[in-house]
Structures are given as C-alpha cells and as structure tokens.
C-alpha cells in the first residue's frame, strides 16, 4: 500500500473544511443556550475539530489551549504570513480554519502519545510529522478492502476503465479504496478529538 504523510491528510481536511464553511467567521453567538461549547454557541457554523472546544477566557494573545498545547495569535499570524501571498487573503478570511489546521497535528500527536502510554509504550520521537506518519502507517496495516467492494467499484466504473478486466485493474482499485478507508479512519479520529481532550478557545478572539 502507498505511503501516506501528514501533509496529504491535512491538505485534504483543509479543503473539506473550507468547502463546508457556512460563514466567513463565527459571527454572533446564539443566545438560546447557556452552553460554552463552540458548536452550541455557533450552531450554523461547522468548525470541524473545534466544534467541541470550550469557549473560555484565556490569557492575552492565547487563542487555543489543550493540556500543554498552546497556540497564540503569533502562531496564527506566522502561519498566514508564511503562506503563498495569493492565498493569504483567504486564510485571513477563514482564520478559525487556519487555527484548526495548526491544532490538528499537535492534538493528534497528543492523542497518539496518550494511547501509547495506556499501552505501556513510550514515544521518544520528537518530530510531529514522523509520529503521525508512523501512526497512519499502523492504521494502514489494518485497512482491509473486501472482494465485494472491489467488484462493486469495478462494475460501477467499468465504462471508464478503458476495457481493463477486473484482474488487470484489481490492485489499483484495492489501493484506491484502501486510501479512502484510511482517510475515513484518520478523519474520524481527528474530528472526535474534542470529545476526549478538553480544548479551550479564546472567547475574546471569537
């Protein structure tokens, strides 16, 4: 199976998040609920990983906090400044999504380390990308694509396969479907981090 890296995963999630965003910014919070959970305060805005974040009064300049993870306005501004100048206006427009993308690898690494600790293991690697790549490779080993799904895909797309037989194209179909299943696993793991780790987001920044 093809090797996967954090870059492709994060880029995929970023595209999905930008395409599904309902507004440019959170806007005015709902007044119908006393909840301090972001998804309850802003029910019309899909914020992915940050949906379960608790809106809190954080120290000046701090945008997000989770355990020992701290992301500041300087981190956000640097990420935007380092981006291609052609997309900077869009990144500024969707700043909450940029914050989410900064948080994803950090929170995922936290989850991976916590899981390793529970299993009596210790992760000594310091590089976030390498930790995540190792985790994704482990997930990939457990991804299985059934013969039924391969056959179903082949029959549904036979007209666009240039006459290739199932035997000829089966490895490519299996790889493609395996990639999709792996992405679903990673996506779900990231989407639900907030239900396992307390994430706080700055009320004044919103």
What does this structure look like?
The chain has eight helices and four strands; from the N terminus they run ααβββααααααβ. It has helices spanning 6-20, 38-41, 73-82, 88-93, 95-118, 128-141, 147-157, 166-191; strands spanning 54-56, 62-66, 69-72, 200-202. It has a four-stranded mixed beta sheet. The longest helix is centred in the C-terminal third of the chain and has 26 residues, at 166-191.
Write the layout of secondary structure elements.
Blueprint: H1 6-20, H2 38-41, E1 54-56, E2 62-66, E3 69-72, H3 73-82, H4 88-93, H5 95-118, H6 128-141, H7 147-157, H8 166-191, E4 200-202
In short:
The chain is α+β, with helices and mostly antiparallel strands and 206 residues long.
How much helix, percentage-wise, in residues? 40-55%
Give the biggest beta sheet. Answer: 4 strands, mixed
Q: Please give the oligomerization state of what you see.
A: single chain
Sequence of secondary-structure elements: HHEEEHHHHHHE
Low-confidence stretches: 1-25
DSSP helical segment count: 8
For the largest sheet, list the strands in their spatial order: 1-4-2-3
Class from secondary-structure proportions: alpha+beta
Judging from the principal axes of the Cα atoms, what is the shape? globular
Give the strand content.
5-15%
Number of strands: 4
The pLDDT mean sits at: 84
Gyration radius, rounded: 20 Å
């Amino acid at each position: 199976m093809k090797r996967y890296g954090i870059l492709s995963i994060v880029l995929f999630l970023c595209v999905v998040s930008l395409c599904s965003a309902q507004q440019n910014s959170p806007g005015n919070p709902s007044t119908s609920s006393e909840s301090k959970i972001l998804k309850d305060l802003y029910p019309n805005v899909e914020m992915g990983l940050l949906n379960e974040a608790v809106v809190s009064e954080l120290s000046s300049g701090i945008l997000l906090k989770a355990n020992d993870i701290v992301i500041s306005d300087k981190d956000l501004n640097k990420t935007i400044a380092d981006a291609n100048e052609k997309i900077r206006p869009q990144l500024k427009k969707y700043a909450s999504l940029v914050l989410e993308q900064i948080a994803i690898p950090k929170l995922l690494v936290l989850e991976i380390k916590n899981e390793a600790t529970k299993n009596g293991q210790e992760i000594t690697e310091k590089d976030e990308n390498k930790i995540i790549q190792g985790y994704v490779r482990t997930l990939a080993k457990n991804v299985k694509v059934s013969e039924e799904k391969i056959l179903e895909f082949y029959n549904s797309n036979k007209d666009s396969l240039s006459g290739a037989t199932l035997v000829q194209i089966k490895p490519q179909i299996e790889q493609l479907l395996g990639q999709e299943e792996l992405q679903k696993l990673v996506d779900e793991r990231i989407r639900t981090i907030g239900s396992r780790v307390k994430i706080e987001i700055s009320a004044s920044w919103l």
